[in-house]
Fold:
Amino acid sequence: MKFGFFPKLAWEGIRKNKRLYLPYLTTGAVMVMMYYIMSFLSETDLLTHMRGGNVLKNMLPLGCWIVAVFSLIFLFYSNSFLLRQRNREFGLYNILGMDKRNLAHIVFWETLISGACALICGLGLGIAFSMLAEAGMLNILNAEIDYTLRVDFQSAGKAVLIFAFIYTLLLLKALINVWRRNPVALLNSSKVGEKPPKANWVFAVLGVVILAGAYYIAVSIDEPLTAAVWFFLAVLMVIIATFLLFISGSVALCRLLQKNKRYYYKPNHFVSVSSMVYRMKRNGAGLASICILLTMVLVMLSSTLSLYVGAEDTLNQRYPYDISLRLKIPSVELWNDETIAGMRTSIQEKVPNRKNVQEFSFAESPCMFMEKKIEIDQRAFEEYSLSNSGTAGYLHVISLEDYNRIMGVSETLDPYECFLYIERLKFSDDSITLGKNKELKIKAVLNSMFDITGSGLAAIPHAVLVASDKDTLLALLTDELNRPLMSLYWCYRFDIEGDQSAQLNACDKLRSEMEDIALRQPDGSYSYTLECREYNSAEFYGLYGGLFFIGILLSIVFLFAAVLIIYYKQISEGYEDQKRFEIMQKVGMTKRDIRKSTNSQILTVFFAPIVFAGLHLGFAFPAIWEMLQLFGFTNLLLMVIVTASFFLIFGICYMFIYKMTANAYYNIVSGVHAKE
Amino acid sequence: MSILQVTGLKKIYTTRFGGNSVEALRNVNFTVENGEYVAIMGESGSGKTTLLNILAALDKPTAGSIILDGQDLSQVKESQIAAFRRDNLGFVFQEFNLLDTFSIEDNIYLPLVLAGKGYKEMQERLKPIAVQLGIAELLKKYPYEISGGQKQRVAIARAIITNPKLILADEPTGALDSKSTDELLRLFSTINTSGHTILMVTHSVKAASHAGRVLFIKDGEVFHQIYRGDSTNEQLYQKISDTLTILATGGERK
Structure:
């Protein structure tokens, strides 16, 4: 046979089936494009030099792998669909005298052509859009943008390698498919009679139960620390339940409706319900995947955007002052006014342009909260956590003097009296025992407390104890050998007069001064934490912006997958319904009747995933909210708005996809395609 | 009284840009009396299927008129045509055309459900028909579970359950083995005797030999017709064979 015969045959096959091949080729191209863009961004030098860029730089390669894995899944999905439709054609060739080697030739050329198309178009688009993606990324990270077109050959090479591998796998699958079937089976494979789906009641009920359980777990999560674990469990359960419900539950529901004769034997319901059973059986898995993908995208986008938009708030809460110094003092003896005054003077000399200064001393310790007792001796923790009798958390102790000054009040306390402030805890007694045997009388439980650590502790149970004077404090905080039971700190924080560079400048000066002080100590055991908002701001935007950006990129991939699944669903149903509609028309249905009945079916099938996604999202919301608080995010309203708008936007996109694919469906069904 | 009157029927197919035109029906005239059993024969390409499609109002003629029970088909509004078809015509096809998503029972009910009948009434109507056609045991099954002959009987049940004025059958025996064919033709005769008018398109001599009258179509025209008269099925079979021989060997029009 002449060279060029098989390539030509393969090309004709693709061209004639463009309705099927176009989405397949597009999938390939888009996946290559996304892979290249992610890889390109992770290789770019810009991120390395940017403050906060490293976070994103570390996450992008992970994104690359996610795209690669999903490409494999999606391409296999659409390819299996293609094969089903092409088998008939291959069967015909086979009967007309082509042997399986010839068919293998065609399959080989087809895969080569589609792979090459995907790679060339994908890389082309990738190179074109990588600049846009980079600009978008830099914009999100609050960095400067420069527009120069670069091509990253290393990324392109990687994309070629990975996708060549994927297409080789696809080729193998197609070859096995051709090899294993006999010609008659090939010819008839698209019209094998199908058993009516049986309702699997066990799975249907199981689906409902699991979903209810998952929702219950999600709603009852009220503690951020354990939220992550429970949430993960709930997510798994929701995924399982969604698949069970879409595959078995839907069929069971249709069967129930069919049993109700008065409902079933109505012109509107008769055709819809009976064909719905088959539709759901065939597409249940696809719809469930769409539902899960949509939910994932929505959760990802809304939480990352919330974090990103709320970053400024979070930043202000976490870092209430421009510069904040926490000095850890090694011994009880050094924890006095004299030491502290020395420190203060040297800081004041280095950084004269201070304003809004706040300073106080405090003691900090992890602890176990019991009914009448707060255990701060860490040696005793183990037995409590074994017997599971207390709540783990943090305790801070401050002096009344600092409290009165900072809060602008003039409260008084007798010795061994205290005020107590608690968060995420219950404490109803009027006295508590601290440590081994020091009992304190609680004069009052406070309603508000100034911020001691930045709101890094917002998610953890913690308490602040205001002690009457420093002697009481010291008595509280030491053991028999006069060693401190808690860590002792001095905190000094202030804003800076001037712009951001003045902040960074002051911060640098302060840092070197603190290094000196630490060095000057004979025992070298002072340690300090210096937080500068401006430094951390870049990290914040790097982290949240990076998360958001990855969220966008992956959303594009997932959305594309959803569109693809929907499209193939519509097309395959179109081909299956075509014959059915001819019959119905002959038996006396008008085109309008048919259109109406299918419209309602398609709508139901089509919008079930997004309705369920909305439901999932709604129930996940409280748990997500708890988890975002771990990041110091506290703007509930913002999160509601962001989530709701994403859902709305997706709803509109979904409508759009529906319109697009519904047309393809009607064209097939009404035979516009067949007559050509 | 004639139930169907076809006069001067003409159908020309043109390609999309009007380049080529094919004349499928040139000038077809015939009538069918109430309660008659008419077979239409002809070679493939003679225009049989085109004729049937036009009679079924699935296609429009280029010229000519069809009057069914006093109503001109061309006067029926587009929006009414499906309902018209449902109420007046019953169909039996070569490929059975059962919907595989419905059980046998539901397949038979389909036209009635579309006409908005209640479940009780449908059940009442189905009972005698199911017994007559021997499908009472199959009602809860699905099309993929039954044989071709059984499927065709179900299709007949679906065609007659609406009490149509005319049953149109398109090669009803085409996909059946000889035993099922015999059975089916016997059934057709039975339902014809019970008052249904049948118009069957076929190229099987055996099928045609069961009819009361046989029309022959050639080159888009009714070329010849044979009445059964007092002939037995065998005698009619012989007559039809002879006529077909003459047609094939290019005999002149009588």
